[in-house]
């Protein structure tokens, strides 16, 4: 019972409906993200000017391009998913196909959720950056997360798709496009951050020699503190990834209806008996 996939507790029709629902929710999240970015663009033009306006426009334009690429990816993924179901279900219903391939279905749902969640997080991070209440690094991390979730969605679709499928080829092309646009967000964010920081912190005119020396020493202290903190965060990240792999690996040990391997059951304690101790002559 412990090794049974959790999806088997869900009724066939419920599992099929979950796929449709998650893909629809993902599409809705992307559309909402595009609308929010357009609103942020209008607000930025009204409330900022000069270098800040230039930086905000560049970042938001790159985010818009990324959202459009994700929208095309989700649409193509939906088309490929329908193609997979139609070609593989035979006489079975769509719900029966999803139930029979429950682990694949769970992977598809998880990947779709990850894409929608990444898009939402990216927009929220962009909003905070434009309002000067967030960090540029958040945008960079969100872009990497979107690229990772896109790869997850392509991998989930590729498992069941025919190699000669046009929709699969288009999905892989969309995935590459998403990666390029995500890299564009990272590049525009880094260049914008450098512009803003250089404008705000690199104006040393009017400082006396003593003031400059004091600023130099304080900056050296900050560098040492940040290096120490960076090392600690890297160790923490390594431990988090280790735990993530442990949990993810534990979810993949159960046998799928497609015939994936199942770990051998542990022998009962009663069967293994301690060998008798040899008697002395």
UniProtKB/TrEMBL annotation:
GO MF annotation: an example: phosphatidylinositol-3,5-bisphosphate binding
GO cellular component annotations of the record: clathrin-coated vesicle; cortical actin cytoskeleton
Locations listed in the record: Cytoplasm
Pfam families: I_LWEQ (PF01608)
Superkingdom, natural source: Eukaryota
Keyword Coiled coil: yes
Coiled coil ranges: 207-243
Species annotation: Xiphorhynchus elegans
Keywords: Coiled coil, Cytoplasm
Region Disordered, annotated ranges: 250-281
Protein name, UniProt field: HIP1R protein
InterPro entries per UniProt: I/LWEQ_dom_sf (IPR035964), ILWEQ_dom (IPR002558), Sla2_fam (IPR030224)
I/LWEQ domain mapped to chain residues: 7-248
Record carries keyword Disulfide bond: no
Listed GO biological process terms: actin filament organization; clathrin coat assembly; endocytosis
Gene name of the encoded protein: Hip1r
């Amino acid at each position: 019972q412990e090794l049974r996939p959790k999806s088997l507790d869900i009724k066939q029709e419920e599992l099929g409906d979950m796929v449709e629902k998650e893909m629809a929710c993902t599409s809705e999240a992307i559309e909402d993200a595009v609308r929010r970015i357009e609103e942020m663009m209008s607000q930025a033009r009204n409330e900022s000017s000069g270098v800040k306006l230039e930086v905000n426009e560049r970042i938001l334009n790159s985010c818009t391009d990324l959202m459009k690429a994700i929208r095309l990816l989700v649409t193509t993924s939906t088309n490929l998913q329908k193609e997979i179901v139609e070609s593989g279900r035979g006489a079975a219903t769509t719900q029966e196909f999803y139930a029979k391939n429950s682990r694949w279905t769970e992977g598809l749902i998880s990947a779709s959720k990850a894409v929608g969640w990444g898009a939402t997080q990216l927009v929220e991070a962009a909003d905070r950056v434009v309002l000067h209440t967030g960090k540029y690094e958040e945008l960079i991390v969100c872009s990497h997360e979107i690229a990772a979730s896109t790869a997850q969605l392509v991998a989930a679709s590729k498992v069941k798709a025919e190699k000669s499928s046009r929709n699969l080829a288009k999905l892989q092309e969309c995935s590459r496009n998403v990666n390029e646009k995500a890299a564009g967000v990272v590049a525009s964010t880094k260049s914008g951050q450098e512009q803003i920081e250089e404008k705000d912190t690199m104006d040393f005119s009017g400082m006396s020699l003593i003031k400059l020396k004091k600023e130099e020493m304080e900056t050296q202290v900050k560098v040492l503190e940040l290096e120490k903190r960076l090392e600690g965060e890297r160790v923490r990240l390594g431990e988090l990834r280790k735990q993530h792999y442990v949990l993810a690996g534990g979810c993949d040990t159960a046998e799928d209806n497609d015939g994936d391997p199942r770990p051998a059951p542990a022998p009962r304690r009663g069967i293994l008996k301690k060998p008798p101790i040899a008697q002395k002559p």
